[in-house]
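Running low. Invent one:
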Amino acid sequence: MVSEERIEEILMGIRDAVVSYDEEACVQLCKVALKRGIDAYEAVIRGLAAGMDIVGELYAKKEYFVPELLLCSDALYAGLDILRPHLKMEEAEIKGRLIIGVVEGDIHDIGKNLVKTMFEAAGWEVYDLGKDVKLDRFVQEQQRINAQVVGLSALMTTSMLAMPRVIEMLRAEDPNVKIMVGGAPLTRDIAIQYGADGYAPDAVAAVQEAIKLLEAPQ
């Protein structure tokens, strides 16, 4: 049986590999985690996601820039490729349907991809529209899919200004859909101001927020 100290060492190694954009080390440590019986979800949350949290802080403090961000994301995705097949659905049935995308004018999709993975791991059916998504496409896809939740992501202050318009368009077509927003420049106060139903500062909180929205009385 693997000791708690060894588990912590492996998870911190994954975290540090993401921060130091060491793709090879990240892959190897994710394989070690699985071999040692560490739950893949734990490895994502306490390893990969924890690493990206630090990367986000370094980026905000201007200690990391776009090149470092991209290299860290390469390490993250390489680790996710190893762990994703081992993520267990909490139950067999689909918990909900989520449409997610990065709004038009923004090509930063690291956070969005991590949110997508967390929802899939929690048993949701996820429709990923990608990055730089035209505003009317969110509406078109919602008409087609009829998701319970639509997630809008933005990393730039300029692109997040499009969110109120998307929310207005979605509400006009489907007053019952729950709309969540997230991304570095956003806060819960801004989310409320924009007319969103929910806000999450990170991928783990996003799943919890979505569940809370669906469980809330109509």
